[in-house]
Every structure is written in C-alpha cells, then in structure tokens.
Specification:
The chain has a domain of 158 residues. Helix content is 78%, strand content 0%. Helix 6 runs parallel beside helix 9, helix 9 packs parallel to helix 11 and helix 11 packs antiparallel against helix 12. The chain is elongated. 28% of the residues are buried.
Length: 312
C-alpha cells in the first residue's frame, strides 16, 4: 500500500524527534562523553537499520522509508561524532569518511530516499575535498564525471531497477557543482568556471545532435549550435546557466518533466547571480539582459518555424 506524501513527511519528523530524544537521554546520562560508545553505538544503528531495509514488508507500506532514513542518518552522525573524538582525523580524512560511507549507503542501503541523497552528497563533498587539497583545477573533471553519468542513465532502459531517482540526484549534483563558481576561490581563477561551461556546452551539443533525426541538415544543426554558443558566451563564468539549459534539453529530449521545472528554477537563480556579479553599471547590465532576451526570442521564432520545429 502506497502512503501519501504527508504521512511519509510526518513519519520522518516523528522518527527524527524520537531519535533526538534518545540521544538527549544518552547525553543527560553522560554516556555520550564516552568516545568509543558513540563510535560503536552509531555503527550498530547503521548496521541494524541497513538490515531492516532488506527485511520483506508484508503490508507493503512505504511510510517506513523515511523512518529508516532518519535513523540511519542519526546513527551516521553519531558515528562521525565518535570518529572525530577517537581518531582526531584531519579535515580531508573526515571528508573521505563521509564520501566513502555515502557510497556504501547508495550501493547497499535499500532505501529510495537515501539513494537520492547519497550521490548529491558524494559529489558535493568531493568538490569540498578539492577545496581542501587546493586542486580546484580538477573540478571540471568532476563535472565531466557527473555529466557522463547523467547522460548515460537518462538513456532509455539504462536505469537499474530501484535506482529511479538517480537522474534527479545527478541533476542536482550537476547544479551544485556549477554553483561552486560563486565561491571566492573560483572567482579568483575564472578559467575553471569557463572550462566547466565549455564542457557542459559540448555535452549539450552532443545531446542535441544525437537526439535529432539523422535526416536533419547538418548545416542547420551546426548553425543552431553556433548561435546558442554566441548567446552563452557572455555567461561562461557562470556555468550554472549552461547546466540549467542542459537539464532543459535532457528533460525535453528524454521525457524527464520534473527536470524542466528544476532547471527553470535554478536558471532564474543563476541568472540573478550572474547579473549581480557583473562588474559594470546598471545601464550596461540592462542592455546585456535585453540583448540576451531578444536573441532568445529570435532563436525561439527561428526554431519554431524551421524544419526542426515542424519535426517536433
């Protein structure tokens, strides 16, 4: 029996409160002051909850999913707390622990909510690791990995069973990686963000070309790609704009309608960030935005009445 969304939401908050009161009870007794107890108790909760996810549910109720998800992450936080107090790891080692456990949760924890969240955390914390190691130049490589996985797992019949949320997780991960461009470290080296934008643009071109009918005139395809490249050229230092349009293309070409709503929301946010970061006068900003709007309108009209529009 499938439960409605608000029951799952209430179940999640209820289990969160229950786990919180349990931890508060342990804190009042002073048991959380014992480092090894935190470590082993957190690990025990993780193992028990992981086992429960594979136990067959006779009633087929889905309201237990947020409960298990809540207790798993509370156990994980308690485990991390114990690891930090016992081993005193460096920041990078601590981040590696989080990334490793999230990969394990994604592969072996049979819970759709966790499988949605884990890829996002893996990519985000991997990006933070690049910050810690001061090798931001590898951020475009991480973006390429995310793009490749998104491209592959949105293909028809490529998505493994029980991993239906993976395209959405990878989409959010891509937007998060693109959002790193607003950090001061990236603004000091804008070439990294520009490389990210170019990679996303190339991926969009490949997707655009492969999804079109093979009988389409190659000159038309190249003209459209070059025209869009001209439009996106001023926004190279804001790869989030390119990433949002890539998700719009994925949503349109492969039928992921929710991604289009997600892309439009983030496109507005990224355009606002791009507009805010422009180091120029308000008049120049207005001219640039007006020109971009006119170009997009002309593009829409041309595509709408072109052979490409008629085929769609």
């Amino acid at each position: 029996m499938k439960s409605v969304w608000y029951i799952e939401l209430l179940s999640f908050f209820g289990s969160l409160l229950a786990g919180g009161f349990f931890l508060l009870f342990l804190a009042v007794l002073g048991l959380l002051n014992y480092e090894y107890l935190d470590l082993f108790l957190g690990l025990l909760i993780i193992i028990l909850v992981s086992i429960l996810t594979f136990v067959p549910n006779e009633d087929k109720k889905e309201s237990s999913r947020p409960v298990l998800f809540s207790f798993l992450n509370q156990g994980f936080v308690l485990f991390l707390f114990g690891v930090y107090k016992v081993f005193k790891p460096e920041d990078t080692s601590f981040l590696w622990t989080i990334v490793s456990f999230q990969l394990v949760f994604f592969l072996f924890f049979s819970n759709p909510i966790q499988r949605f969240l884990s890829p996002i955390l893996v990519f985000v914390f991997s990006g933070v690791l690049l910050f810690e190691y001061k090798i931001l130049l590898f951020t475009p490589l991480l973006t390429t990995v995310c793009l490749s996985l998104l491209y592959f797992y949105t293909l028809p019949k490529r998505l493994p069973e029980k991993f239906e949320s993976l395209p959405y997780s990878l989409s959010v991960s891509l937007l998060c990686l693109a959002g790193f461009s607003f950090f001061p470290e990236f603004k000091q080296t804008p070439e990294i963000s520009e490389i990210q934008s170019i990679i996303i643009f190339i991926a969009g071109c490949v997707l655009f070309y492969t999804e079109l009918d093979t009988k389409t005139n190659s000159l038309t395809i190249v003209s459209v790609i070059l025209f869009f490249g001209l439009i996106f050229f001023p926004t190279l230092e804001t790869p989030g704009i390119m990433a949002s349009f890539f998700l719009l293309l994925i949503a349109f070409a492969r039928g992921y309608h929710f991604l289009s709503y997600l892309a439009w929301c983030f496109l507005i946010l990224f355009y606002f960030g791009f507009y805010y970061d422009l180091d120029t006068s308000l008049l120049e900003k207005s001219k640039m935005m007006l020109t971009s709007s006119l170009l997009f309108f002309v593009t829409y009209v041309c595509l709408r009445f072109s052979p490409l529009g008629k085929k769609r």
